Amino acid sequence: MKNILIIVDLQKQFADKNKISYNKCLKFIEDNEKKYTQIIATIFKQNEDNINYKTHLRWDGCMNTTINDLEFDTYNKKVLYKNNYGTFDASFLQQHLQCESNDIIDIIGCDSDACVLALCFSLWDNGYTNFRVLTDYIYTTANNFDNEFVIKLMRRNFGDCII
To answer: For residues 148 and 49, what is the distance between their CA atoms, to the nearest angstrom?
Structure first.
């Protein structure tokens, strides 16, 4: 059985205001990375292929994202660039996760209401049953609602996968 950690968009552009949750996630990685057999980190980078962020949200804060925007050690971690919220299709998940039905997938990172949530929907819809969102290590940078609301929404949609 493998233990897999997926770190969602934990990059300096998405640090919370006082970096409290961001630093808590960085500390989790540092303290726990040895217990995982595989670690995958996603990094969000805007590009001209997906103009929705710029057009509809009037946001272009990640046009020049690089691996240097990850403030944790990327050695022995698979880093995957993406230009969307993270709705991954079955072939993408199979290629990068390479997991068996009894493998455990833990999820941490940012934004709980966007990319973390999108990843959960992708895993759920593609039949992954052993994923767990570690709610102490996810957060949102949204100003108009809090993380607890998002966690309630996740529990409604994914039940005991949200711990």
So the answer is: 33
Q: pLDDT tens digit string along 37-64?
A: 999 999 999 887 778 888 888 878 788 8
Q: Please confirm whether the linkage preceding 111 is cis (ω < 30° from 0).
A: yes
Cα separation, 123 vs 109, whole angstroms: 16
8 A C-beta contact, residue 38 and residue 5: yes
| Residue 161 DSSP symbol | G
For residue 117, which of 143, 100, 142, 97 has the smallest C-alpha distance?
A: 142
Strand partners, 78: 40
Strands (E), 1-157: 3-8, 38-44, 78-82, 104-110, 131-139
| Domains of the chain with bracketed CATH | 3-161 (3.40.50.850)
Q: Which three-class secondary structure state does DSSP give residue 107?
A: strand
Q: How many CB atoms lie within 10 A of CB 56?
A: 8
Tell me the pTM.
0.94
Structure tokens belonging to residue 144: 């108009």
CB atoms within 10 A of CB 124: 15
